[in-house]
Amino acid sequence: MATTIESALFSLLGSLVGNRCYPDATPDNPTFPCIVYQVVGGQAIDFLDRTLPDDENYRVQVMCFAKTRAAASSLALQVREKIIEKGTAFASAQTLGQAVSLYEEPLKLHGSRQDYDIWIKAR
Known about the structure:
Blueprint: H1 5-13, E1 21-23, E2 34-41, E3 55-66, H2 69-84, E4 90-104, E5 109-121
Parallel strand pairs: 1-2
Antiparallel strand pairs: 2-3, 3-5, 4-5
């Protein structure tokens, strides 16, 4: 069975936040700190012989939320280290630009958003 980008991200990042690692959005009444990841594009490759590639490319946006700026920034750095580290489920990964600081006024939460270019073995 092929590994999906979502299952690979959860396996890789979940332990950083007690498995509070979610695709797309947080659940109702989440506990913080937490991580939210979302696939926001990538390179689609189609071969002329109409076969699919062995590797798939994704642009992934990872958001880290915590109660303080320092905690959010620290978590974001840990995420970056995990994603870029050799030996993960990813064939390769690259950080795209610098992280963007976030602040959610209604919740009084700090966050960090970072984009990654990730290749994963699809088959």
